Every structure is written in structure tokens, then in C-alpha cells.
Fold:
Amino acid sequence: MSYQVTIGIEIHCELKTKTKMFSAAPTSFGALANTKTSVIDLAHPGVLPCVNKEAVRLAIKACGGLHCTIDPLVKFDRKNYYYSDLPKGFQITQQFHPIGRDGYVVIKTDEGEKQVRIERIHMEEDTAKQFHKDTGTYIDFNRAGTPLIEIVSRPDMHSAQEAAAYVEALRRTLFYLNVSDVKMEEGSMRCDVNISLSDDPNKLGTKVEIKNLNSIANVQKAVQAEIERQSALLDAHEPIIQSTRRFDEPSKTTVLMRKKEGNVDYKYFPEPNIFPIQLDEQWIESILNHLEELPEQRLERFMTTFGLNEYDASVMVNDRDMADFFEEVMKDTKEAKKAANWVIGDLSAWLNKNNKTFATNPCKATDIARLVNLIEEGTISGKQAKEVFEEVMTGKKPDDVIQEKGMQQVSDDSTLIAMINEVLDANPQSIEDYKNGKNRAVGFLMGQLMKASKGQANPKKANGLLVEELKKR
Amino acid sequence: MIAPVYKTISNAEATANHSNLDGLRFGMRENGESVDEVMTASRTAGFSSYVRARFLIGSYSLFEENQDRMFRKAQKIRRLIVEAYAKLFEDADIVLTPAAMDTAPLMKESADLRFGEDRFENEHMQLANFSGYPSLTMPLCLAENGLPLGINITAKPFAEQTMFDVAYGLEQIIDWKEAPACLIK
Structure:
């Protein structure tokens, strides 16, 4: 039986500030344990928090890019609980006054475009990181106090595809806004999914939470696996138990982490050490007026300004570094489609094979532009260009490669005609075949011509001239 | 009114403020089989019963079902008290009060005042906690028993300099070690 699936997603995203949310200690990733801490983040007695303005600025950017209404009064609250990775015994968060509300993100589904609503965005601080080993649990406080935004969606998603599309769209927007590295594999973006199934469209089923998803692909797989698990239970009239689960990659199933024991009372109350901050409306306005171009805007622009089709434009927009590179290339050439093909095709493939990304791309945009122009001018053929490309990727300039290899394509009419006639003289049978209507002879003669010219005859031109000369015979 | 409001808010804040003392990163640590046990044992051994009682009361007032009638209500009354207190400063730059009506109790005299009576003369000193106004207490004179009596000088918000000026001025004209108690009667 098929059930109504309801999915809501909570995302925690680390803001890329230089320092912590409430102290001047540096943010970091991968540093030696407990070398990037301060007494404030370690919660030594008597320390006081100080709000990081850059974190607030980045949070406002995120709210803007996600179409949220912004609350100009910044207030913080304490979320109280005891845990070994929570130095103060409470987390400073924004329970009652989130900085952003009522936003949305647009996702593409099989049925077209759809809006997934965002209920709220609020600022808070990250906890320390625990490592469970045989010898015990080790706690690294470098991460404690890192600025976070928590983005809570409304339960608007109804399939694994929609869930993955939402996370993808959100990730892309946050990356474009330069507010976070959003690397799920490094934990700078973390995703918790809540799913419930129901056979009654007017009622929601029991909610199950899935945590620790470290890639968008796994979000989709985990949600799918959970839908199947819950469907099977409901088919068998068994109850769904409210719990927290994780995705087990090898078995491609969700596995129980812990059962939900009722609702924990976090005793939220306003943080008494941080006075409410009234943000200057003009400051907020100026931030919102200077947002980076959003993915949807760039997609639109790539399609209208460069005349690209939606597919090509999407592929590039999805990888901001690739899109940036493409735009650089377009500064030196007018051939948008050809440039896109090289960037999406050969260049991407080369980077993949050599374990690089567009962020670590060794070739210059001007070189790709030159390559595209050389083909367009007819100096080299598309096929030759692939050879030149390989050399360019080792650091050579396209023109140097062509020079070195004597690859200059022959496009001069008289030279071509001379070569054509030589080939025709050497293949009288083919001339006969052509006269008898066997057009395949043209192909054969072209092959001979390419051989004779060592691949340097401009194929298009040569073909035209060949047919002309054939007709004369 | 001041005392219950003060106790409610200060206990609630204190219980959260001292949650960092869990025995894990610094300070005394008692052993346990799990993190929870270590924390519980450390905090039990590390705080007196008086302090633990305050934490319990503070925590209780913060429970979701209790906040409206306890913590939040106390916050609201605090605001009303501060508003009333602020009126005193409409016509004055400084409010002077005795710090306490009596000298400090001797060690041998002091009873367990944990949940004892709240006397108005001491409650007024909590107004500075509620309002955040700059407040300074200094010795003024000697009582008949030879112990000092204090005076409290409170100024408007951000008027620390006025407060210091008045305190300094008083210091210049009164030598508290010589001044007899009748001065403030």
C-alpha cells in the first residue's frame, strides 16, 4: 500500500567567520585538538559572551537569500541540558526570537517547480566534538562555540527526491552567498530529517528522525529506505516507534540509534548576559542589497545572456567554481555553446580523472577560450583540439602546442585543391563509383585525403571542395 | 515583594550559570561509571546542600509548566519594581540609603538564616541587582558596638562618574572611623 509521506528537514550550517559566535577564539577545521579554544568556549567560571557581528551579518545574508522576513531585534536564549560536549551546560541559541522567519527555497521536481517553505532560521553556537575510541571518549573543544545557523523547513516534502532536492538547493544557495563552506563530509553542513507516514491524508503519522547524514546522495537513500521500512511495518499493522535513526551505508537501511523518551524540557529562558541588540535597519538593507547573485538568478542569466540551454546552464550553476570558470572563459570568446561543451565535457572529465576540482583547476580560462577560438577560426579541427587540450593541461599554451606539432590545419583553397587532385589521381576507381551514384566513395576519398594530409585538412572545407572537384572529373 | 522576585530570578540564573561546573574540564572530579555519574557525583560533592537547594528551586521555576507563574512572573514584577524605582531618579541624581539597619552579626550570634525572615532594610539593596543602576556601598560611621555601618549611593544608568564623585565627596567630609552613629539616625 502506498502511504502519504511527510518530510521536514532541519539543517545546521557553520558560518565561515574568522572567530567564534561569542568569543574571539579562531574557528578552524582539522586543527590539532584543543589548540583553538578560549576560556569563553571552555566555559571557565566568570566568562561572558560577546556577540560576533560578522556572524550576524552572514545570518542576515542567509535569511535574505532564502527569502525570510528578518527580525531586527537580536535576542538570545539558553537551552539547558547536561552533556559532555556542552561546556556551559547550556547552549546559547535563539529559541523565542529567530532572526529569520517564513522563507522558502525553490526545488525542481518531476512535476515541475515547487516551493519548500522555511519556518525559521536562527543563530546558535556549535558544541564540542566527541571521538569514541576503545580507550574512552575524547573531546575536542576546537569546534565549541562555532557560529551556526539552524534552518528549519516546514513539512512540505513528500518523497526522497524532494528531500534531496531541498538539501541540494539550500546547499547551493548558502554556498553562493559565501556564508558557509557547506561541506557535508566535513560537518560544516549537517542534516536531520524527520519522516512520518500515514494512510490518512488528514493525519500525520509517528515521526522518526534520521541524523548524521553526510551527503546529499545519502539523504535520498536514507529517506527512501525509511519510507520502505515504515511502509512495511504499516502494511503489517505494526506500530512505528518514535525514535532517532542513522543511515547504514553498507546495508542501505536505517538503523536505530536511540528511542525518543518523551519530550525533554530544556528550560529555555532569555540569556541574561546578552542585552537584546537592535539592528540598524539601514545596515540590514545594505546587506540585503549587496547579496551575491543567487543560483536561480545565475541560471536565468546563463540562459538569456549566453543562450545556453537549461541543462548546460544547470550543470554549471550547480558547481559555482565551474560557473565562475565558464564566465572567465566567456570574457575571451563568443562561442558560449562550444565553451560550455569544453567546460562541462573534456575539462570536467580531466579534473575528475586527476582528482581535482574547478577550485584546484590548473588550466587558465584564457587557454580554453583560445582553444575554442582556434577551432572556430578553422585553424585546427575539433579532433585535433582534443590533442591540444591534453597538452594544455600539462601547462603549455595552445598556440605553442600547435606550432610544436605542426598541427596547423590546412584551410587554404588552392592547397586543398592540389591535395584533392593528387588523391583523385591516385584513386580512379572511386571517381567511377561516384559517377555511378555510390556516394560512399566521397567518404573513402575523404579518408584518403585526411591520411595524405596527416589529419590537417580542414574537414568541412575539404569535403566541399572534394565534391566540387569530383564533379569536374 | 522584592525578596521572592530576587530569589526566583537569581536562583534560576544561578542554576544555569553553574552548569559549567561538571567536573569534566576543570575543578574537582568524582569518579563514576558513566559521564552522567561523574557529573552527578562531582556536583553533589562539590556544592553544599544550601547551594544545591537554590539550584533545585531555580531549576524548578524554569520548567516549562512552571515558568509562567514563577520565572516569567518574577521577571514581570521585576520590571514593575524597576519602573517604580526609576521614578525616584526623576527628581534626584543620587539616592542614599543605609546599607543595613544594623551592624554585621558576630560569628557566634549568626543563626542559620537560610530561609529566615526577609527584612526590608536589606531587601532594598537588591534594587541595584534588578535595575543595573550603578551602586556603591562604603562605611559611613561606627555604631555603639564599634562595628562600622555602611551607606549605599546609587546613581542613574551610566552615571557611574556621578556615583564616584558623591562617594569621594562624602569620604572627604566624613572620616568614618571617627564619626559617631548619631549622624545617620
